[in-house]
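Reviewers of the previous submission asked for a worked example of the structure-prediction workflow described in the proposal, so we include one complete record here. The input consisted solely of the amino acid sequence. No template or homolog information was supplied to the procedure at any stage.
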Amino acid sequence: MDRLHTAVRQQAMLTLAQMSKVERLLEGRRKSLLGACFRKVFLLPPNAAGQGQDSFLYFETLDAMDILLESLVLSSPGHRLLQRILQMLLPYTDTKHAAVCERAVTRIAKLAELMARSSSVQIWSLLGHDDSSSPYGTADNGLLGQLLGHLIVCWTSKVWEIQQEALLALHHLCRFIQQQKGIWEIPPPC
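From that input alone, the workflow returned the following C-alpha cells.
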C-alpha cells in the first residue's frame, strides 16, 4: 500500500494550483494530472490520517487537493473542467473501501459548496449544455442526475462520515439549484 511519508504530493498539488492560473502550462494535461492526484491520495490506506506528522501531512495534502480543485474550476472558462472533475470523482464514490468513498464525497461536497457560493457557475454547465447563455438545450450526459444519484446512495451508507459528507454535498447542491432557479426557469405564458 502507498504511504504518505513526505510533503511532495501536497507541494505538487499546490504547484499545479498555481500553474492553473497560467492556462497554457496545463493545457491537455489536466485530466491525467488530476487522475494521478486522485489515485495517489484517495487510495491511501484508511489509517493514513494516523497520528503525529503523518496525520498533519495527510490533512495538509487533502487541503492542497481542495485548493487545486477550486483553482482549476475557477480558472476554467465555461466550467467544462468542473464537469470533468465531477465525472472523475464519481467512480470513487462507488467503492467498497469506505476511506476512498469518504475522500471522494468530501471533495464533491467542497465543489458543491464552491458552486453554491460562486455566481459564475451556471446550472446548465452540469447538464452538459454547450451554450452557457441558454438553459434550454438538450442535456447530453445527465451529470447532475448522476451526481445526485451517487450522493443519495452515499447518504444511505452505514459509515457515518460518508453519510454526513453526502448530506452536506446534497445541501450545497440544493442551495446551488435554488440560486439558479430564477435564471433557468421558463417564464409562465402571458
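The longest helix spans residues 160-184. We consider this example representative of the routine output the project will generate in years two and three.
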